[in-house]
């Protein structure tokens, strides 16, 4: 099931990752939610596939919104954010990019990162 982020209110928790369909959509998600972790991924990427269940769990367990951007489908968007390798994780807090990591991070590290901005 894909969440229709256009109809979600900022106060409502989103318990699963949102698949981004373009720059406008990503901008809206970042503007509407306090903390957003964006996963720039590729379907063919092994580490991206390993990270997927971790991100699914974080979407359900934390107050952050998890957004997923397929870099093959959205090459210009990935380029605009300087993505040169996948997975790249960008954390936005209060509408601004606060953190950025390339490579798969363990669940506890990602949880601590998110909680640092949601508390």
Automatic annotation (TrEMBL):
Ranges of residues in domain Thioredoxin: 3-119
Keywords: Disulfide bond, Electron transport, Redox-active center, Transport
Residues the record marks as site: Contributes to redox potential value: 46-47
Site (Deprotonates C-terminal active site Cys): 39
A single MF term (Gene Ontology): protein-disulfide reductase activity
Gene3D superfamilies per the UniProt record, alphabetical: Glutaredoxin (3.40.30.10)
InterPro entries reported for this sequence: Thioredoxin, Thioredoxin-like_sf, Thioredoxin_CS, Thioredoxin_domain
Keyword Signal recorded: no
Keyword check for Metal-binding: no
Protein name: Thioredoxin
């Amino acid at each position: 099931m894909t969440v229709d982020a256009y109809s979600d209110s900022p106060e409502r928790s989103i318990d699963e990752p949102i698949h981004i369909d373009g720059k406008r959509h990503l901008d809206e998600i970042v503007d509407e939610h306090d903390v957003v972790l964006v996963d720039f991924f590729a379907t063919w990427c092994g580490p991206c596939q390993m990270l997927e269940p971790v991100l699914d769990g974080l979407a359900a367990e934390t107050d952050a919104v998890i957004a997923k951007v397929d870099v093959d489908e959205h090459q210009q968007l990935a380029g605009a954010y300087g993505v040169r390798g996948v997975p790249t994780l960008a954390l936005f807090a209060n509408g601004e990019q606060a953190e950025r990591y390339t490579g798969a991070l363990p669940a506890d590290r990602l949880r601590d990162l998110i909680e640092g901005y949601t508390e």
